[in-house]
Amino acid sequence: MEQLDFKSFLLNGILGFLLFAGALGIKLPVLKNQKWEITTFALFSTLASTFLIGFILYGISSLIGLQIDLIYCILFGALISPTDPIAVLAIIKNLKAPKRLSMQVEGESLFNDGVGLVIFTTIFAVAFAGHEPTTTGITSLFLQEAVGGIAFGFVIGLIAHFLISSTDDGSLEILLTLTIPTAGFMLANMLHVSGALAMVVAGILIGNWTRYVGFSKQSRLYLDHFWEMIDHFLNSLLFLLIGLALLLVDFTYQSVILLILAVPICLTGRYISVWMPFKLMQRFRTYNPYTLKILTWGGLRGGLSLAMALSIPKGTLYLEHIGMDVRDILLVMTYAVVTFSILVQGTTIEKMIKKSKETVLHQRGYVDLNPHKNEHK
Question: Which of 4, 122, 212, 304 is the most buried (most CB within 10 A)?
């Protein structure tokens, strides 16, 4: 595990495959219906969560005498704020949540993944690369990564579309889709644009346009089965490595206090960052009563957050009052939040989703949520 470069393996490797596979299943008509919600949650909520978690952690750590520099607290907020599409998509698909709610959670997790990586890269550059934290510098870096990634994803999706449409060979069509998360993802990283956002955009393009125009009926089945197989295999491998990553973590009693605090801090930051835009959007649209709860509790963290934490250089700053390097402190807190979100949130969200489905059926007149209410009549 010490020899494995987790950052290269996930951020520069399998992440492209996982995001592309997830985006292939996104239905554009439903996505259009939820475009404002997904955009707001992916952009505003991720950014708000980053600073909320950062400032709350800084305030509490200072209060209990385990102070961590503000820039590292915000860096922790950046790496822990994006929900992990790998974990979220697997659970939402298995439980078959209501379509609108499902698309909100899926769309947000796919897009805030790319946005979160861009925010992390920007703050990382300020913390470690010596970049001056000027508004112009940070904005230009953010726009280069985000806008560049979306534009690049559209271009490679378009190229792949025309290549796939020009052949009737089913095997070749599937092989051409493989060029997107391999050569396309690598090229995006070389051009310093967001490969994550590029994969999401290209996946949506192939899944909603090329699927019906470029592929034969038989090839569509091959496309779904092939990418489903890759998705399941890489998911299993990734979660195995997340478990083994615990071997890399060293603990002190001070770090145990911080890792216990990290979970409620992250949940609080997530709730506030989602609650603010949600209350505003409720004025214009009616939502399932469990939407806010599911968006908060279903904001699972996984391998992506761990990969970002592991990418922080070791030996940067040793905090004597905690007895650990700042990188190890952030890694310990990240691992605590990831473990809690997968083992606790991931296993308990099923009840919320079932209740939300019952509510939808009740609104349509299929289910009586309180069958004993009128028994006396």
Answer: 304
Query: Residue 105 phi/psi, 5° resolution?
Result: -70, -45
Alpha carbon distance 187, 279 (integer Å): 40
Distance from C-alpha of 143 to C-alpha of 149, rounded to nearest angstrom:
9
**Where is 93: in which H helix or E strand?**
helix 85-95
Given a cut of 80, whether residue 332 has pLDDT beyond it is: yes
Token readout for 321 is 């009052």
Which of 89, 12, 83, 95 shows the shortest CA–CA distance to 41? 83
Query: Residues 74, 51: contact at Cβ < 8 Å?
Result: yes
Q: What SS3 state is found at 268?
A: helix
Domain boundaries, the chain: 6-364
228 close to 236: Cβ distance less than 8 angstroms: no
pLDDT (tens digit per residue) in 33-89: 777 888 888 888 899 999 999 999 999 989 988 888 888 999 999 999 988 766 666
CB atoms within 10 A of CB 166: 11
- Provide CATH code, domain 6-364: 1.20.1530.20
What is the C-alpha to C-alpha distance for residues 221 and 96, in angstroms, rounded to an integer?
21
Q: Which residue has the tokens 């961590």?
A: 68
Using alpha carbons only, what angle is made at residue 28 by residues 26 and 30, rounded to the nearest 5 degrees? 90
In Å, the largest CA–CA distance within the chain is 74
The two beta strands, 324-325 and 318-319, are antiparallel
Tokens in use for 261? 């605090």
Residue 211, amino acid: R
Q: Locate tokens 């028994």: which residue?
A: 375
Tens digits of per-residue pLDDT, 244-288? 877 777 777 788 888 899 999 999 999 999 999 888 888 877 777
Neighbours of 129 (CB within 10 A): 8
Q: How many Å apart are CA 189 and CA 365, to the nearest integer?
A: 51
Q: Are 211 and 221 in contact (CB under 8 A)?
A: no
- Give the single-character DSSP code of 182: I
**DSSP-based three-state secondary structure for 84:** coil
Q: How many helices (H) and strands (E) does the chain have?
A: 19, 2
